[in-house]
């Protein structure tokens, strides 16, 4: 994923602030988080975790970018709830960035199957991340990648809808600029 065609493809998708992932990652490394649909309680849990990671991201000189499948208005409302409204966000309802980064879509078992039920119960009932209206693609799984100068230097791809990144492990990667 570090070829010129990859960088070129990245440059086709501007954020709501007008910058592409290529432009952002040329300035400083970027933690790019691919969300599931906006109504997903696990998506809301990830956003809350990202809010808590702001100091750690600043310490590592990492920008945060969020890729989602919502329209900009819906995304701003959700991101604002977690104080992330100023983060570079990419509306990708056609899932072109998801496909470019090879973020997989889950099977029925990987999105709502028995392996996800207990995590879903804990996330919604015990932790209070209540679901919203299901989004465009409830089978889309999440991911997080660290992008530096258009190259993926670390990644985590969810194996089911409840599978969230180990942020400490992901953020401990060695960055080429260090």
From TrEMBL:
Thioredoxin domain residues: 1-176
Any one Pfam family match given in the protein's UniProt record, by short name: AhpC-TSA
SUPFAM superfamilies hit by this protein: Thioredoxin-like (SSF52833)
GO molecular function, one term: antioxidant activity
Name listed for the protein in its UniProt record: AhpC/TSA family protein
Species in which this protein is naturally found: Gimesia algae
